[in-house]
What we know:
This protein has about 475 residues and is α+β, with helices and mostly antiparallel strands. It folds into 2 domains: about 10-250, 4-Layer Sandwich (Glutamine Phosphoribosylpyrophosphate, subunit 1, domain 1), CATH 3.60.20; about 275-450, Rossmann fold, CATH 3.40.50. Helices cover about 30% and strands about 25% of the residues. Strand 14 and strand 15 form a beta hairpin. Helix 4 packs across helix 5 (about 145-155). The protein is elongated, with a radius of gyration of 23 Å. The two termini are about 30 Å apart.
Amino acid sequence: MLRKAIYHDGKLKEACGVFGVLDMDNLKVEELTYYGLYSLQHRGQESAGIAVSDGKNIKYHKAMGLVMEAIDSKSMTRLRGGQIAIGHVWYSTDGDVSVHNTLPLVMKYRKGTIAIAHNGNIVNADALRTTLEDQGAIFQTSTDSEVIANLLARQNADRFETGLLETLKTIKGSFALVIMTEDKLIAARDPHGMRPLALGKLKNSYVIASESCAFDIIGADFIRDVRPGEVIVISRLGLESMQIPTPLKTSLCIFEFVYFARTDSNIDGISVYMARKEAGRRLAVEQPVDADLVIGVPDSGTTAAIGYSEASGIPFGEGLVKNRYVGRTFINPDFNIREQNVRIKLNALTRIVRGKRIVMVDDSIVRGTTSKKIVEMLRLAGAKEVHMRISSPPVKYTCHFGVDTPGSKHLIGATYTIEEIKQIIGADSLGYLSIEGLLKTVEGSGCGFCLGCFTQQYPMELDWNTDK
């Protein structure tokens, strides 16, 4: 039997991206949402979906695959005629890959129809689900979004927004939500601000997206980030902002700047590009080495490599070429191509690296298998020395807030010392950026950061053993 195996590049995986638009200018909301999701494809590659409201009814289409695979021209035609739309791209973090779990989730209840899409992880979802089932609720998916939707449906408030505020006070974890009723677009960000969410405007129409890069592709202007704990309600009457209680210190996931976010995004006042470049510069100061050439592991290590080159004075070059047409693959699990995966995606430029002492910059090491194969590749191409530099601290602990992280026993940074990791991956030297150095790269943001994957200090208490 064929089973799905997704090419994994050895990185931590962000789970989802969300997008929403309310039209005030006779725009084609389904097309705007399609292109918005396209720009957020890096946040989820397993499924995509769009829901559209014409003011009275909500229709939707969702399927497995990349945006261009899941949403074809026929489905786009069926989605025409809407005034509001929300969309979602998904990467499963729990292995429960099914079209039933794809978003947006569309549900009817006694007061109408809602569509909901969610980025993040509700850590008390299981407890809430059990309580709801004891009260007679029936669930058709295993998503946190359905738990939120059921809680919303049980609210007796006169206004939907009031019921939403009460619902958000009961859930614990990370979330960036877009919700659509027949006539409203709603955005909500968790009180800790762990997942990013931004507000934009296209002419007179409002747009919501996980990252500001989605505004650029559709020609919208960035207005501001949705504040931690903020609920924004948008209708044809305008925009209303409400607030739920927030902690004294917010905790945006710092891995957005290390790897998750697209380089051309700005999050909570910080340019992702500048943060990564500064990480490379600080890495060069903290972990210097005598070498001939600095290269980055494309694409995630390239910006930090440029910063390392500028700070160290060592020339920057393109030592690895990425095959940009490698996407999702479906293979028989008995046919083992694991050893070939890195070569399918990357290849060394022999004439560039031969005989040189190379500084290879990457954003992180998770399991170590990919790093080992890239080092081997560079040596086979004739590199004299390979010095690996990582623009973040060692990843040692699992994330519980919407990021696909192996358990600590599978994280090489949790199991081995830096010297041992150097030996395992076969590098001549290995150096990581310090936590202090990483925090310097995001100075001026005005928000706090979650460092749980580095320190095991999470923004909230968890009710289970944190070592998967």
